[in-house]
Amino acid sequence: MRSRCVGKPSRGRALVVASAFAWAVAVPAGAADPRPLGARSRDPAVRIESLFLRLSLFDQYGHGFQSKAGPPRGPGSQRMTVLQPMGMIGLRQRNPRWSHQVAFALDVISAASPDGLDAVSSASRQNEAGEIDATTTYDADDRGQWSLRYGVHFEEPWRSFFVGLGFSRGFFEDNTTVSLATAYVFDWFDYIHPLGWSPKGQEHRITLSDNVSVVQVLSPTTLLTGSYGVTFQQGTLSTTWNSVYIEDAPKRTCADDNSQKPAYDCPNREPERLPRTRLRHAVALQLAQHIPRTRSTLKLGYRFYDDTFDLRAHTPSVMLYQWFGRRFYLRALYRYHWQRGVSFYTTATRTTIPDDMPLTADSDLAPFSAHQGGLKAVLYITPPGSVRGAQYLDAGYSRYQRSNDLHIDVFGIGYGREF
């Protein structure tokens, strides 16, 4: 069973990957159109400026105590496979100050987890999730750049929409760039009990997030980036089908009980319980150094995270970009993550625990360390800066491994073109 980590959108890999993909490959908007006004007027109202397509395969396996796909006491299987086609289209209006980016993603998920209310019958082994993530940008030259981000996420038990506003401006001859962003996310979803029983109908949660970042040019080949983000969440923050083993539960099954009691009274499992609010803080730094002689770029990063669940995490990372000729480069990545886990994490509980006490066995909230390494190769069919527009192909592999028995292999191929 795949756990839904609180604070991340459900199967939110669609949102997280789409946003990261758009950031990684987006082409900066041009400052102005040098052509005469008469030539511009014959342009279409909106033209395609860039196109990016990607196909990724996520293969996850391991075990977690929140999953009931195993022995009664756990840990249960977290086996899952996700096939994710996605892409992004860059558009520019006749007025070159206005541009748009539209990212889209589809997750086809194979897992013995919560597709519907029939978890006991094992019929729910496949689910689909989709998302559209759009950003409209207005470039006011030296007065800054405004952006509006909006989109929807949908899957069988989960619906979500989000909207955000951003502003970015350069100072000191653009040697310093300051960016501000705020976002609002509203999720509503079916309450799915670990056994598929859904007595509560629909639940919801809201997320408000504010971020500030500064990019500072230290030298012609050195950039320093710093950012701070604060996020507030309220509502049902638990993953409703996650469960905790009950040590002193009666040794019986639902089939032995003819009293028509709710399903959760039958097995040795209790749904997880999380607080109704959460405040999260994240601080990140990155130093990027380009080495012209070897055509290499080194990026060193660090992120610190803390929240009111008493979860604290440290994540250092290093990336190396290496060009070979004018058409080919490699990117290597290594990231280490350590977190101490929440105070109310446990692998088992008793029925005497008060109902208002937070309780979880989610492996995402447990104390653990993780290693991630990856390699990506990019081949340009036409070189960057070509009058016909650059085209490229890429292929990559990433391996994520946690100390609490979770492993994820990610394979991806992509195609990009600028027009």
Folded structure, characterized:
This protein has a single domain, classed as Beta Barrel (Porin), CATH 2.40.160. Mean pLDDT is 83; it is low at 1-35, 112-124 and 252-266. The relative contact order is 0.14. It has 419 residues and is mainly beta. The strands form two sheets. It has a 16-stranded antiparallel β-barrel with strand order 1-3-4-5-6-7-8-9-10-13-14-15-16-18-19-20. It has helices at residues 13-25, 37-41; strands at residues 46-64, 76-77, 80-93, 98-111, 126-139, 145-155, 158-171, 176-190, 202-219, 222-235, 243-246, 269-271, 277-291, 296-307, 312-324, 328-339, 348-349, 368-382, 391-402, 406-418. It is built from two helices and 20 strands.
N-C termini distance: 43 Å
Q: What is the count of helical runs?
A: 2
By DSSP, the count of extended strands is: 20
Structural class: mainly beta
State the order of secondary-structure elements, H for helix, E for strand: HHEEEEEEEEEEEEEEEEEEEE
Could you name the CATH topology? Answer: Porin
